[in-house]
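haha ok so turns out i had the wrong file open the whole time. this is the CORRECT one, sorry everyone. sequence first:
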Amino acid sequence: MTMKLVHIWLLLLVVFLCGKKHLGDRLEKKSFEKAPCPGCSHLTLKVEFSSTVVEYEYIVAFNGYFTAKARNSFISSALKSSAIDNWRIIPRNNPSSDYPSDFEVIQIKEKQKAGLLTLEDHPNIKRVTPQRKVFRSLKYTESDPAAVPCNETRWSQKWQSSRPLRRASLSLGSGFWHATGRHSSRRLLRAIPRQVAQTLQADVLWQMGYTGANVRVAVFDTGLSEKHPHFKNVKERTNWTNERTLDDGLGHGTFVAGVIASMRECQGFAPDAELHIFRVFTNNQVSYTSWFLDAFNYAILKKIDVLNLSIGGPDFMDHPFVDKVWELTANNVIMVSAIGNDGPLYGTLNNPADQMDVIGVGGIDFEDNIARFSSRGMTTWELPGGYGRMKPDIVTYGAGVRGSGVKGGCRALSGTSVASPVVAGAVTLLVSTVQRRELVNPASMKQALIAAARRLPGVNMFEQGHGKLDLLRAYQVLSSYKPQASLSPSYIDLTECPYMWPYCSQPIYYGGMPTIVNVTILNGMGVTGRIVDKPEWQPYLPQNGDSIEVAFSYSSVLWPWSGYLAISISVTKQAASWEGVAQGHVTVTVASPAEVDSNSGAEQTSTVKLPIKVKIIPAPPRSKRVLWDQYHNLRYPPGYFPRDNLRMKNDPLDWNGDHIHTNFRDMYQHLRSMGYFVEVLGSPFTCFDANQYGEGHGGAGPVVPLSWGRRSRAQTRVRAASHRSCRGQRSAVLLKRRGPVGAAAVLTPALSPAGTLLMVDSEEEYFPEEAAKLRRDVDSGLSLIVFSDWYNTSVMRKVKFYDENTRQWWMPDTGGANIPALNELLSVWNMGFSDGLYEGDFTLANHDMYYASGCSIAKFPEDGIVITQTFKDQGLEVLKQETAVVENVPILGLYQIPAEGGGRIVLYGDSNCLDDSHRQKDLVAKQPVAEPADCFWLLDALLQFTSYGVMPPSLSHSGARQRPPSGAHSVAPERMEGNHLHRYSKVLEARLGGPEPRALPACPHLSWAKPQPLNETAPRTHFPESFLGVRHPYPEQLPECQTCKEPLGEANLLSSLRDVVKFSNDNVVRCHPVCSTRGGHCQVIKFQNRKAPNLWKHQKLLSIDLDKVVVPSFRPNRPQVRPLSPGESGAWDIPGGIMPGRYNQEVGQTIPVFAFLGAMVVLAFFVVQINKAKSRPKRRKPRVKRPQLVQQVHPPKAPSV
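then structure:
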């Protein structure tokens, strides 16, 4: 019986141990992700931002700070001369109301523009802008329980949007069409929750005695409770909302503050920093621009050092907000902001993280992969005339990061709003390490972060910026920093892929549009500065630097702390047929006023060089050249331009820039893979030379004074013929239909190959001169492809949205595309689109296609080719919630200009199949929505037609081919009455009789810099990831101490700096801690050189001698923590815990359990052995009598010899 009980007990023990081991493995691999359980709710965090204008309320900005009485007198005196009587100043009851301010919020009940203009005419009033209301939604939605394990650290609340999307289908009501703002809902990646401060080795600086003391850090969020157990140095809590509470009702502000300065459990970076909590969002997640402006002013008064802003939106034209951000950084406030959660789409950066003086932060997971949700660059507010800048500035952990809960404990969250406080906490800790605090400013801190960043392999600059945050390297840079200027990026290498994408994706050639690189100048010498004289272009003659020419555009004043340097690169005429690599560098000298306490009084200057390396090829055949029309694309902001696909509920606004390197990135990549060269036109049609793309003279009118090449027709035909013969193509023929469908087709020899002007999703109007120029160009051989979108005034009125809080309607300024303007442009060829709105799946040339909120072709030339399909009438579904099927909807038309040497025209009614932002499933809808497949194959076929005149047989002989519509039974779409497109248009302007075209602007003129050739070889290319570059070097083999022979493992080698004596580019002198205590000697660790012949060496910050960078002597200090409360665990009070630098909470908690269980196993083993010994039968052996030599008192148990 005893044995049975023992065996049963052992069996239960083994089962328990196996289960515990399995759980331990899960804890090690998945951390706080528990096994699925039936009673657990599975929630996924979604973040939504939107903003709207508050009706009748305006922000009046002044030219300085004035008292409330003075501000009132200015407004009163300005409005006296106007007829506005019904106005008042809205009171603002917050901590800054007792101080002078630079703005006022007024309410004007009458809509009189003259009154607003009168206000702006006052000498002390700088600007009058509408008051904006900001919505942020933090909510959880149910996800698949089988895929999401239970997590005890989850949030239990489910937050609803202030303007919820109630519809999942168009036929269920009209709520969907009243969707407001940009609802960017993304399922965030799940990652291993870790102690992020120790993962980034903050414990090394803690043990040096740096814990963020005497640094004031502000958290602009949802507040913080008064007696939260994780914080010991909350200096001030202020409320800027209309709610009478300072506490955090959502938990987001508590989490952000915990990542920065929590002192226990989920420990923050700077536990001794002074926390200033600014509650700027209500529990309903609503805020106003004026609340932020007051809070920002108060932060300036409190001399805040670091400010974290884990919010953002696409509205970079909210001028009062942006102006105040500049003023904050000008007052030496280091602002850190999240770039947004709208990835993986490009061109989705949020404001203010896209500003030059703000540190924009992206997110990665703990495996150093760019998080899918993290927004991507480039910045888009420079479009269409220029080119976006490199953002984010830096990336860090933002997936599965642990932070403080609302009432204590920890939770794991993901998002760039998590990555932002990680950098803000690291910056706070770094500021506390600088002895000369006057050297720390927004520019110097950004310089240190980007110089020390570790570049991630295989990731481009618009995804990772300068790379992953490296806290210890940034500390080294700051320890010997001297004020200077630097550039971001620090070099231009058009041959380095993938980091320099998209610049590296296409070589440059003579006659092409100039390549524009927008470089940011960071000025660490002062808040204001200037460029001395002009930037200088110095080509290296041995490296063919004279084969390129460079033009500059730059900030006249660098303020605050930064400016821009736009570099246009083109190929000289002498290199028109040359192929090779050209190199040179640009030299920029920046000057800033001397410091106030400086004795010299002279300006501070800093000279920096920007290496340039480009790949040049001979001009490609014009049949392979595609010109992308960027000038006529509009997006939000400033106006309400609705989404192109009305089924997509998570993107109600068209705001990604419509650029080939943003939301049309995949299309661009496909065209490049097919051998096409894509150029961007950022000016009117009158500013490009059609001779580069078409056969004829290109028409009269001004052209941009670039290096456009000209060839004779004979030369062009010879080149085109040789190009086709090399590719094994037969002589091209053009199928032209004459007469009714089914009649014999007439074969006409194709004309010379031609380039193509590609117009996709155009919302802008057109100058009359553009229409005339385009007609001449097409008649002379230029081809044209137009991808349109929906336009229906009734639907536009339906998709307006009503804000219940402000009682204001937002009306679209145009549809998905500006059909009336396109029809006027195409009318000369008897072509036009209708106002029909269609949707549906179909098959074309054995390809599955999806037509997403497209229009139809209303009229087309009789001898053209038209393809029709059967679709649902989506317009009827939107307007009346009824379903109808329409047959023979014309969607695709192909036409050859009959004139000799004429080009070809293609019309297609939907652009969503090319747009990355719409070629994805709608994750918001509860009902499955069709996924728009790409139509790149169709674009290839159309380019074959426009370039070579080759009609794809799948289209010319398609069963869906029908007679072209004549347009006799259709009414041309008209512009919506009362639209405000003229406010945002580059073409229209307001007149008394209505909007009319402006005067045609002059074409951009590039003034090429005079080269200063250098008859010397370019500096030898170095690996750009040396000390101030990108990656941690790894030793060729792990060394051993010279005396005590204690092995130096890789974990110890890279875990801390406490045993580092000094760094250099090639080696590190280290002493093993154990060896040091035993009298061991330091050892020089050699690092292997990694080959990267195509990469340029990063520009090191000036005046930093790495051989003199010595880490301060080790001081065994650690952050001070408060006494433990009853029942609390102190496992996280020790920096580094059991295993420094790694997440080890579960290990620390499970070691006692395993020790107890191990003891039980040993005890059970001995119990079993004793029971076996007692129950074993004894065997009797024959006794052998032997003579006993010694008389024994007691007989022995065994015979003796």
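The CA atoms of residues 516 and 581 lie 18 Å apart.
again sry for the mixup
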